[in-house]
User: What shape does this take?
Amino acid sequence: MKLKIGLSLGLLILLSASLTAFQKITKADLRAQKLEDRLENYARVSREKCLEGIYEDAAAIVDSLMIERARSKRDTVGKPPKPLRPDKPEIRPPNDSMSVKPLVDLPIDSTQ
Assistant: This one.
């Protein structure tokens, strides 16, 4: 069993090597292949950059829509306004026009 697998594998390797030996690749073919690879790479990179820009623009639009929706659902009642200051009270003169005197006259003793 192992011998059959080994022979089959060896024959496959030999055939693939002989097929590539008969192919003649010129420098022009190599340049054309490299040019094609570079063009494919450029197209892929350009497409990725374009998609990235589109995704960023779409994310900005979605973010702004979400913010606008949140603002519209917000409670708009809010706090009541601050009350105004009351007017300054008018100053009324006292009813008693007499000056204030002590009730008891105590002599001050300075000897103590």
